[in-house]
Amino acid sequence: MSSNTPFGPGDGFPPASGSPEYLGAGEPNRDQEPSGRGRWPVLGAVAVGVAAVVGLGGWGAFTLLSGGGAQPADVLPASTVGYVSLDLDPSASQKIEAFQMLKKFPALKQELGLDTTDDLRRLVFDKLQEDGTCTDLDYESDIKPWVGERVALAAVPDAKPGLDAPVVALQVRDQDKATSGIKALAGCAGAEDDFGFAFTENYVLLTDSQKRADALVDEAAAGSLADDAAFRDWTGKVGDPGILTMYAAAGAPAYLGDLRSGGWTSYDGNAELMAEAESMDTEMNEQMKALYKDFKGMAVTVRFDDGAVDAELAGQGLPAGISSADGSSGPSLADLPASTGAALSIGLPDGWLDQWLESMAGFWGSGESVEDMLTAAEAETGLTLPEDIETLFGDGVSISFDADTDLEALFDAGDLSRLPVGLRVAGDPAEIMPVVDKLRAAIGPDADMVVVEPGDDVVAFGLNRDYVQALLGGGSLGEEDAFQRVVPDADEATAALYVNFDAGGGWAEDLADELAATAGPDPSESDAQENIAPLDALGVSTWRDGDVQRGLLRLTTD
Predict the structure, then answer these.
(1) pLDDT, block means (10 residues), the chain with 558 residues
(2) Quick check: pTM over 0.85?
(3) In angstroms, rounded to a whole number, what is the distance separating the alpha carbons of residues 112 and 114?
(4) Which 3 state secondary structure label does DSSP give 98?
(5) Helices (H) and strands (E) in the chain, counts
(6) H helices within 14-81, ranges in order?
(7) Which helix (H) or strand (E) holds 102?
(8) How far is it, in rounded angstroms, from Cα 164 to Cα 216?
(9) Element at 346 (helix H, strand E)
């Protein structure tokens, strides 16, 4: 990673010397041990305030198309286990794409002041002051002169587990002005006694004490997060850097769990309540560690490209929940009718319900066991549980809505049998239909409202007979450009979500019209319609690439 600074002497940033310069807020005792209590909330208040001003203020850099310089990962230690960075100075093309895309939405354009880039910095600071925070500070003199374009919030293990506080890495333009501004922010947040910061390169590291801030600078000098092999590997798997980057090391779940376990310092003097809270916390912590026992790390990046915003994920050992963990997929969304307005598909592996019930058992607390609940449900429904439920949902399910319908007529009629919504199950109809018959018997006459039709390796459910029939025949949604853009690997997806806002002549806008007509005159409804209009399609999909779990969220605009 490059350590070149994007600011030259003419920008007011002093040239780097042989060693970092250490500065503290309120001149705290450098040797003072952290107190432990109140460290997260106090530092958090300052961190969020400063990070918001610095991070969002960086939108003003849209006019500076440089995109170079050190990233926060260059100045954080290699021992960092959790990292979220906001980079509003990425490549020139991403800045232009983000700026042009966000301007399509009237609410964002007005709220963010995108006609004048520097107004956004003032907007963020003004929002802070509206909440009564730092009202004595002046944006022009106290904030604007020193803020940069990059900020990160990091979790870095301390020598004393359970006492760790977050670390904020902020890019700065001028150390002297940043010193005054940060001290002022710490002062108005009441954090002088539990706060420290130290400069390195063109960044400042902020944490809960001066001693720790100094130590973090030394740690990063010995080995930075940017040089860590696992960090490089996982962030490399999610492609080119974007506006936002998130990273979790293999040890992150255990670290965060241990951090939570050390948080009970008092309960208004009630020892019994404190013991109960600690016991519940320990139980949840053990369940969390069990869920993430195979976790090897992950990374996420968010980027703008070609009129779209992408969020891409790569990880290993992430909890699969009820979704397929073996890479098997459910019914492909590509086989749905081309007029589909919205759809969700999920693949289900053998034994998925047992696995899910087992993983969730610890979160339900004491009382009825899973076996007791299943026995009671069997008596009430006549089903054999959990086997019948797993058979009913087959290898996976999809639920979809067809946009080729007259929403106004549908609203006026109030007839559910005209609603083009359906459920499709991938599996053997000869095994699924007997379970359906059991459910019909348990539900009674009301079950006749649901249309059920078996097909080739699929069973379709719905309220509208024509739509249920359409779900049985192979559709051509996979050939639609909008679908291909946002769900590029539909046939490999273990789970997928798709929304086409323009399908059926713009069903999403039509729905907003109907809701507005129902609600009566309301300016907010009009705003909703204007901000739906630029949307094209949304896709969210997950799949497996060997041992790596991958995910993609993509939102396109017209």
Answers:
(1) 34 35 38 41 40 36 46 96 82 63 63 48 67 82 85 85 77 92 82 84 92 94 97 95 91 76 53 73 73 91 87 89 56 93 91 77 60 86 91 94 81 79 95 95 92 95 94 91 94 93 86 69 59 89 92 92
(2) no
(3) 5
(4) helix
(5) 18, 17
(6) 39-57
(7) helix 92-102
(8) 12
(9) strand 340-347
